[in-house]
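Example S7 (structure tokens).
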């Protein structure tokens, strides 16, 4: 009797240990089941199928072992060995199936695959951010800055500079500004690689508000600077500053309203060109990037998806909608009623925001690698940075005619 009870202790303990991980996962799965994938009868049920498969696979060695060994030890009986094998196999299968269900749910939330015409440029750096201007794009990488021309030529800038947070092209000044924590650098837009420090105070974000004025965001501070000179001989002179009360994550200028929008953590602030605050809104989560077009604004919020805001009245911005379940939103740009979202391995997502209270995911371009940063070119095309592949794509976002959807 005691021997039989001892033999049952091991499977009971294994069950309790496994339940500490599987039971909460099972409860969460039942409370929030993944959406069904069209054409798949097994969507959302892979965890149960893999659980049964895992139990069946684990039973084979358990049965073979019990035939070849004597009943010695705590769990050497046929019942104990088979029970432990089945429990462990089923648990492992359940957890594997759960992860597959979640991955399928993310793909389903991103909608059908879309094919966009695109050209590709190989970069000799790991792209982290991309900015567009009339003559091409500027890519920020861990190894410095790369200029990508309209002819897809790649030129390096600031090879010795590390920690570049933002860049700004100033074609009328034949200059590029690069913001770092230790200072702001100026480079020739069409000249050599070397630049010089034009402001000893550092910055995190840059935004042009006129041909001779830029706004610089830094921790707890926003400054307006006047420009003079050209290229590496550019000079910056501070004209106004304001305490911002947070780290400036992104800046966006709305020229028609004359408003500088400042995104700092979970707060979006409207300021005049004199940097006077006129309105603000608290966001449900911390924002990563900001895109403003007309009366709408997009905020990419990482794991919390994307926010759509009404910024028609800068004194009272309003949150209109939120896109959830699309994976991690690294960046987003707004073009008309379409939002393009950088969603890592999920690709370039296309979201219809014509009804901002109910944004609708139209699909995803999944052939662009790990999409981590976007920039809207003046001609309407989109620069897409592939962080893992070290590539830059120039995408033509045609949503009718040439855009082919379907399961790829």
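Recovered sequence:
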């Amino acid at each position: 009797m005691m021997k039989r009870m001892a033999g049952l202790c091991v499977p009971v303990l294994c069950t309790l240990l496994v339940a500490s991980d599987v039971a909460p996962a099972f409860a969460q799965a039942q409370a929030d089941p993944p959406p069904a994938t069209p054409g798949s009868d097994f969507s959302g049920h892979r965890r149960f199928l893999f659980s049964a498969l895992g139990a069946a696979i684990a039973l084979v060695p358990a049965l073979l072992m019990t035939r070849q060994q004597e009943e010695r030890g705590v769990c050497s009986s046929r019942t104990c060995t088979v029970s432990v094998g089945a429990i462990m196999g089923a648990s492992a299968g359940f957890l594997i199936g759960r992860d597959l269900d979640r991955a399928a749910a993310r793909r389903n939330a991103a909608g059908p695959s879309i094919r966009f015409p695109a050209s590709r440029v190989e970069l000799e750096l790991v792209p982290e951010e991309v900015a567009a201007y009339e003559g091409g794009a500027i890519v920020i990488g861990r190894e410095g800055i790369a200029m990508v021309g309209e002819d897809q030529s790649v030129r390096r800038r600031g090879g010795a500079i590390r920690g570049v947070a933002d860049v700004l092209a100033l074609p009328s000044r034949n200059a590029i500004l690069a913001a770092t924590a230790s200072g702001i650098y100026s480079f020739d837009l069409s000249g050599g690689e070397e630049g010089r420090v034009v402001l000893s105070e550092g910055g995190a974000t840059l935004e042009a508000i006129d041909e001779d004025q830029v706004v610089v965001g830094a921790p707890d501070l926003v400054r307006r600077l006047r420009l003079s000179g050209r290229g590496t001989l550019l000079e910056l002179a501070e004209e106004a500053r304001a305490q911002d009360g947070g780290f400036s994550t992104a800046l966006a200028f709305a020229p028609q309203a004359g408003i500088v929008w400042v995104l700092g953590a979970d707060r979006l602030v409207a300021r005049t060109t004199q940097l006077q605050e006129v309105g603000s809104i608290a966001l449900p989560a911390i924002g990563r990037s900001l895109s403003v077009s007309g009366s709408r604004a997009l905020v990419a919020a990482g794991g919390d998806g994307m926010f759509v805001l009404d910024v028609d009245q800068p004194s009272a911005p309003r949150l209109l909608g939120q896109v959830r379940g699309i994976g991690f939103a690294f960046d987003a740009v707004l073009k008309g009623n379409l939002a393009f979202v950088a969603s890592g391995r999920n690709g370039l997502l296309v979201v219809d925001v014509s009804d901002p209270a109910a944004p609708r995911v139209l699909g995803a371009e999944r052939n662009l690698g790990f999409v981590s940063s976007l920039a809207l070119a003046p001609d309407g095309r989109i620069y897409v940075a592939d962080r893992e592949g070290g590539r830059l794509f120039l995408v033509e976002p045609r949503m009718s005619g040439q855009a082919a959807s379907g399961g790829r």
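Notes on this example. Confidence is low (pLDDT under 50) at residues 1-19, 25-41, 401-408.
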